[in-house]
Model the fold of this input.
Amino acid sequence: MITALLADDESHALSLLELLLHQTGDVKVIGRCGNGIEAIAEIARLKPDVAFLDIEMPGMNGLEVAERLGSAACDTQVVFVTAYDRYAVSAFENDALDYLLKPLEVDRLNRTVGRVKRAVARRKSESPEPASTSAIAADNPPAGLQVQLLGEIQVSVEGKGRLKWRTSKEKELFAYLAVHYGSRIHRDVLLDELWPDEHYQKAKVYLHTCVSYLRRDFRQMGMEDAVIYEDEKYSLAPQLERSDYREFVAAAAGLLQTGGNNAEQLERTVNLYSGRLFRSEDYQWADDEIRHTEAAIEAQLLRLTQLYEEQRDYGRMIAAGRRLLQHSPYNEEAYRTLMKAYAGSGKHDEVYRVYEEMERRLDELQIQASDMTLSLYEGLRVRKRG
Amino acid sequence: MRIRTQLAMKRLAKEATASEMAFLQSQIKPHFLYNALGTIMSLCYTDGPRAGELLAVLSKYLRIIFHEDHKEESVLLYKEIELVRAYVDIEKERFGNRLAVEMDVDERLMSFKVMPLTIQPLVENAIRHGVAKKLSGGRVLLSVQRRGSEVEIVVEDNGVGMAERQVRELMDTAGGESDGVGFANIAKRLAHLNGSRPLIESAPDVGTRITVRLPIKDD
Done:
């Protein structure tokens, strides 16, 4: 016998469903709720095998209930019930075992009960202690998981390949949650940031779809419940905590603490930076993070050139200066550093070439080199002649 | 030449059917019908006589919709109010004591003619988007009163209400060339009729009040 909980804000609908389920002889209804909030509490208390959730309920609708259950590592199967078009439901199929359309048809209901029976039997045979195994799986990310946000956005697991995004918004949602890892993002904030021009209700549907895409795609990579939903807020699961972006930010913070006088530590940090955050995307919500990381990498490279200059290690100073130029091709200070480095290593023709390159670049902006740069260049030339 | 005329007529007929269908669909929303049938189905097992009554009410609702001449620019207020009553009866059965509806309609206006399908969609919105979304339910007040040469329709609910953004979106769709149903459709026809706009007052957790003024025709 399967135990079931029913949730619908219409009592006639509850009565009919209970009656028809009773007639199947396979289902025992152990609870009835009039709204989604009650349903959450009752499912936690009664732990039914299956919950039949009406989609249109006040307070918390059936989709939100299912989403909440999905992130609570709960064993209750979900079946949606709705008078709406089936296409409106299909986007949420991932969160549910099945869906039923109102008015109910007995044949269709029997098929659903069959599916529930099989799912319950399968689960019972698979996991004698479902709670403990899923807890372990949730804490340990799969071996070789890599989350890359600097440069191109990429998620990969060794042996399972790269995660393939179904839609660009799915990718953007992931990027948003990954950059803000550690804070739980309210649904309305996500709607405003990712779908600013979309109507509220439509945007909500899009968000739901993206969340369920993400969950499904991560499940295929061996990770359950990648997206957590709680109190109308979204966040990524702890197993997705690590990303190259967060590593870089942490390393940069570490530098600030030690004063940034250790060239090795600086090198390690700049090597974590494999490109501009979300390089190929146009995420306006990320403007601040992009600016901060770009400013950090420039400051670190500049600091590196200074350290190498003090150590008279001109080879490394040139390498760091070149990298700095790649980040900021209009930065006069970078050209000055590079000129000093080439002069220090005795490559005076390179000094001239760097100067020319700078003039060309500054010319694009129709500005002239500052006096400071000019006098440095003159100084270096005089030193060469003398 | 004759072929071209025939083709043109055929196209016109097709367009007319399409607009007629769109019109019907805007009135008989599938989910409304499905929910009504689901409710009646349930009553068949528990309260046969009530199921019969409700079938009669649903038939009446459908008859008004089907029989109305949708090209008519005005309709007896009496007919509009009948449609509202049928709709409300069905919804009250569905939502039980979570829905209360009060109607304050000036009986002297019943034989006047107004723009058709204005009141029922507003009441429907108040129930579906206002009261039904609230845990404890709520009530809808419909008032139809004469204001000079106009009739003022006020539909007020104490449901979930709307945030500013939602009100703005509603007004935006109403202002645009939307062929949407419900509110947008009413706003469009109203603008066409006398250039006026519906007034929306709403606050989250407080409720929504929509006020529409229609010119009345006496005949």
